[in-house]
Specification:
Layout lengths: L3 E5 L3 H13 L3 E5 L2 H5 L8 E5 L7 H11 L4 E5 L4 H9 L4 E4 L4 H13 L8 E4 L2 E4 L4 E4 L2 E3 L3 H12 L5 E2 H8 L7 H16 L6 E4 L3 E4 L4
Amino acid sequence: MSNRILLVEDDVSLGQQVVQTLSQAGFDPHWVQDGDAARDLDPDDYRVIVLDLMLPGTYGMDLLKRYRVKSEVPVLILSARDDTADKIRGLKLGADDYVTKPFFPEELVARIQACLRRPNLVGTERLVVGAIQVDLERREGSNSAGALSLTPVEFEILALLARRKGSAVTREALVDAALDPAQDGSRRTLDVHISRLRSKLGKDAIQLETVWGIGYRLSGNA
């Protein structure tokens, strides 16, 4: 596997130092300096993402949420903000570690290596949630009745819910993953796709639960 690491950091001096340290440690750093440049990158192109929070353009926490919709790649937050609430929020949103500035570059390398030693949370190409299965590589879904005929949008919705099995997924995250959030009516369109997905799931639609005021959840209880 590639040793490519995404560094999202707007401080030029610090960024140069981190890039040099990562290169010396045998990694292949890709450095971008603002949130907008990092927004549309594919997180699965990297082994680890090192993410600053206070960025020009898209805010770091918003990038973290966006990446977690698509991937379980380890994300290590770098921030000058040492408030406990920020740390807790970052970890709850899916960060694997939180490093407070200033820090020693050697510590950052050690923390990255620790992230890479952890088991991959989605190390399989097939997700199983009760009677529902999602094959991420083949982009296919099935349930107790057999193969499901899913549209690309329906597959993306089901795949995200399966990745977060048992947890509520916000409507915003589902729109971001499967639809165009810039289009008017995306939230209403989401409800139409959910309804069609439930119809295709048949008796297993009981697993696709509405979490009122938040979004939806895929439960393992058939």
